[in-house]
Design a protein that fits this description.
Distance between the termini: 29 Å
Shape: globular
Structural class: mainly alpha
Strand content: under 5%
Number of strands: 0
Number of helices: 6
Largest sheet: none
Order of helices and strands: HHHHHH
Radius of gyration: 17 Å
Amino acid sequence: METTTPSYRGLRGLYIANIVGAGVPGALITVAPSFAAEALFGAAQEPMALSILGSVWLAIGLVSVVGLRAPRQLQGLFVVQLVYKLIWLLSFALPTALRGELRPAGWVMVGIFLFLIVGVALLIPLRPLVGARATAVQA
């Protein structure tokens, strides 16, 4: 792939956003969970759930470091993120917001998730992923 195309630069931008927005908080949650819970969410969190979140976010950040060198080969990471972000928005954020109970940290997460969803939708060719599966099923 040409390294100067907007798509290539955009993918690299998404990987950098993952490193900063998921990897750094994931590392912070992993090494200093109490501090991270207060800093990121404004309140203490259930330790097991927080450790799972930290592990997943740190893994996303680490895979994204590799993705900087091979942007197209690791773009499946963004599909996983797209799915989990949509699930969270629809199953938690939307109902909580409609009840008027979404806290400020939740609104920040909504904004970040929507930004990344739009970025992924614009930069990742999802149709070939779906088309490849449909063709394989027909064969």
